[in-house]
Design a protein that fits this description.
CATH class of the largest domain: Mainly Beta
Oligomer: single chain
Number of helices: 5
CATH topology of the largest domain: Maltoporin, Chain A
Shape: globular
Number of domains: 2
Helix content: under 10%
Largest sheet: 22 strands, antiparallel, barrel
CATH architecture of the largest domain: Beta Barrel
CATH superfamily of the largest domain: TonB-dependent receptor, beta-barrel domain
Number of strands: 44
Length: 750
């Protein structure tokens, strides 16, 4: 009996020993120990982090074959298959730095170049950045980009535009694959319905870029670059729902068609059909939407690897907002107020490299926008067609990298408003040249000049100059200066005019706006001995506008007055961003912008309406590798901005408070090909009605049936209308959607 017990104890101890192996090792980079690296056994909860010298120990391993992974944000992940049958010492992982600054950008100079070598500062945002706070479109996703703000212009229909460095939407040019497909009508339509999974990266240039892109690229540009079909997933899907009843679905696939073509197909569907009125004004807090977008891209193999790519997109949206009892039977009538917008949009774009010895590309795009809208009983029917084509010759010559271009742009615009007496048809030919001169290994000079001819305004020249100094591999100094111009298409869905709340007054023939800009940028990358990585990016800018056309809401609260400013306007400021990899699985970024956007006329300086003095954004991520869970905390904060109040009796605040939108998300990626994510949007439950007696002026009388006017057309204060106001939903500066939960699922098959 005693022998049996002794034998049992020996076997138990032997088995226990077999299940208690350990692995000792070290993680290095460039022969130095790398601290805070996550080392874990795939498919288990066994994991650890390296100490200050890069050493690690994995324990409680039984006999078997294991997949050991060493992962650290900012470095390329390394994995090894290890057979464990005894304790292991000396397992070494050598991690290589994954330099995101080595990414290729094209937006700054119209040719592929390393971001670090570009003389023009270009910001890059990948789909992973937007996944930290999933949104139904890129328009909303840009709220987490420093210096870029999606601005809502209407409490009822929720249309808006993109502000870059405080400048309004018409100053921002939106591109898809380098082609200008958005102009005139709201930029929202160009940024909606493109599945995140189809996006390779989003490039943003802040400041004038008219010397390359012409009109509208005055404040900056946003270039949405889609994936090459061969680099896209075989199948992908991403869908989420929110506690407010929103549903969003991205789905698509790629396929080889024969031996010479690869096709990429993607679609986006978004639906929100749950009217909510949390502020009790009998108006929907958020617009109801039913939207579908289909994207199709083809790449063709040609001799000598010449490029041929064609893409198309179809977009349709039915959105409405208004009184809670509104339905489509009231559309266009004066019984129940509603704003109903049907939008249909087609886009075609592509690039073809000519079959000649020189590198000459022909790029083209076409967009057709048809909008059928009613704002109460005011119809807005608009059509816009934009055709664009350009030839670009890329010619390196000794230490000169030359670029020659010729472009032709056709604009057609017509609507039923008094601002458009007849259809606007214009063809604008352009010529441009750019010379990037390598002065030395550390210095680059870029010179550019563009010539446009508009038969309404004559010849327009836009020169620019850029200088880059790279004293070390981790320091880049850039200075850019140049001019910009904008040929104004006056009516760009100006909501306050459409509602009938204000009359549109055009006091003179409008001349094109001109701008003069200088931008200074410094980028620094810092590596610490403890394995931390910091990237500092700071910019200062000054832009001076002449002939600025700024809607005047102040002279008469019942009018919007358009004319060329008899003076000047300026945009100046400073911004900085810090990206950091600070510890195991932790990565963060924070940015802030301080700006002053104003207009000066007759020696009187006025702060621009709906422009904040400061803004800040942040994104913090932590991944716990053993459990495959990632935590993302994103947010922004905006300083006060001047708001469009309706006269001295208006009880609403003239300036908005400092406000913030913050979000939290958890993601689990432990399944093959699947990710599950969930979180909370707008954690603080902030909405713009806080601190105001109301947001929409006279929401109880949207057709102004009980408003009295004097002989000069001014509103008269009465007991029923003590603030002397008309119906006006334009007092808005942020999203009116409160806290909500969300849950989503992603599937990717590579």
């Amino acid at each position: 009996m005693r022998f049996s017990v002794l034998l049992f104890l020996l076997v138990s101890l032997s088995l226990q020993a077999q299940n208690n192996y350990e692995i000792n090792g070290r993680v290095v980079s460039e022969n130095e120990g790398l601290p805070y690296v996550s080392v874990y056994v795939k498919g288990t909860t066994i994991g650890t982090t390296t100490d200050d010298f890069g050493n690690f120990k994995l324990t409680n391993l039984s006999q078997g074959r294991y997949h050991i992974i060493a992962s650290f944000v900012g470095y390329k992940t390394v994995s090894k298959m290890i057979n464990v049958s005894a304790d292991i010492d000396g397992l070494t992982f050598n991690l290589e730095f994954d330099d995101s600054l080595g990414e290729v950008v094209v937006t700054g100079t119209l040719k592929p170049v390393s971001r670090l070598e570009s003389p023009v500062p270009v910001e890059i945002y990948s789909p992973a950045f937007f996944k930290k706070n999933p949104t139904p479109n890129i328009f909303e996703a840009l709220q987490n980009v420093n210096g870029v703000r999606p601005q809502l212009n209407c409490n009822v229909c929720n249309t808006g535009d993109i502000h870059i460095n405080g400048l309004e939407g018409p100053y921002t040019l939106v591109l898809i694959d380098g082609m200008p497909i958005v102009s005139g009508l709201s930029t929202v339509y160009g940024l909606s319905g493109i599945p995140n999974s189809l996006i390779e990266q989003v490039e943003i240039v802040k400041g004038p870029a008219s010397s390359l892109y012409g009109s509208e690229a005055v404040g900056g540009l946003i270039n949405i670059i889609t994936k090459l079909p061969e680099n896209a997933p075989i199948v992908f899907a991403d869908s989420y729902i929110t506690g407010w009843g929103e549903f969003n679905l991205d789905a698509g696939f790629k396929a080889k068609i024969g031996n010479k073509a690869t096709m990429l197909f993607g679609s986006n569907y978004y639906n929100y059909s749950n009217p909510i009125d949390n502020n009790n004004d009998n108006f929907t807090d958020v617009t109801l939407q039913d939207r579908i977008s289909v994207f199709n891209k083809w790449d063709f193999k040609r001799k000598e690897n010449r490029t041929l790519s064609v893409a198309g997109r179809f977009f349709y949206e039915d959105r409405w907002g208004g009184e809670m009892q509104w339905n489509k039977s009231f559309r266009g009538g004066n019984e129940v107020y509603g704003e109903s917008i049907y939008t249909k949009r087609y886009e075609l774009l592509g690039i073809y490299q000519l079959p000649i010895n020189e590198k000459v590309n022909f790029q083209f795009s076409y967009s057709d926008h048809d909008q059928n809208s009613v704002y109460g009983n005011t119809p807005y029917l608009a059509k816009q067609r934009i055709g664009f084509g350009q030839l670009i010759w890329d010619k390196p010559l000794n230490n000169h990298d030359l670029l020659f271009g010729a472009a032709l742009r056709y604009n057609y615009y017509n609507d039923n408003t008094t601002a458009t007496v007849e259809a606007d048809k214009i063809t604008i030919p352009s010529l441009f040249v750019q010379d990037e001169i390598t002065l030395s290994k550390k210095q680059t000079l870029l010179l550019g000049l563009r010539y446009d001819y508009d038969n309404r305004h004559g010849s327009i020249f836009t020169p620019r100059i850029a200088y880059k100094l790279k004293p070390t591999e981790n320091d880049v100094f850039r200075i850019n200066a140049g001019t910009g111009f904008r040929v104004v298409n006056l009516f760009t869905e100006e909501h306050a005019a459409l509602t009938g709340a204000r009359d549109v007054i055009i006091e003179e023939a409008l001349n094109p706006e001109r701008s003069y800009n200088i931008n200074i940028n410094y980028l620094k990358k810092l590596y610490t001995k403890k394995g931390m990585i910091f990237t500092f990016d700071a910019s200062a800018w000054y832009t001076h506008f002449t002939n600025a056309i700024i809607p005047d809401y102040d002279t008469n609260p019942n009018q919007i007055i358009y004319d060329n400013l008899d003076g000047y306007s300026t945009s100046k400021g400073f911004s900085f961003n810090v990206d950091a990899v600070v510890a195991n699985g932790i990565r963060g970024s924070i940015g802030a912008t301080f700006q002053d956007v104003s207009q000066t006329e007759n020696s009187n300086k006025t702060r621009q309406i709906l422009t904040e003095k400061f803004t800040a954004t942040w994104a913090l991520s932590y991944k716990h590798y053993p459990t495959n869970i990632t935590l993302d905390y994103t947010g922004n904060v905006y300083g006060p901005m001047r708001l469009p109040i309706l006269g001295e009796l208006d009880p609403r605040k003239e300036f908005s408070p400092t406000w913030s939108i913050q979000n939290i998300q958890f993601t689990y990626d432990g399944f093959n090909n699947f990710e599950i994510y969930a979180g909370v949007k707008n954690v603080l439950n902030w909405t713009p009605n806080k601190g105001n007696p109301f947001i929409i002026a006279r929401a109880n009388d949207p057709f102004d049936e009980n408003v009295e006017f004097d002989s000069e057309g001014n509103v008269v204060a009465t007991p029923e209308n003590p603030y002397a106001m008309t119906f006006d939903p334009s007092y808005v500066y942020g999203p009116n959607q409160g806290r909500r939960l969300f849950f989503g699922l992603r599937y990717v098959l590579d």
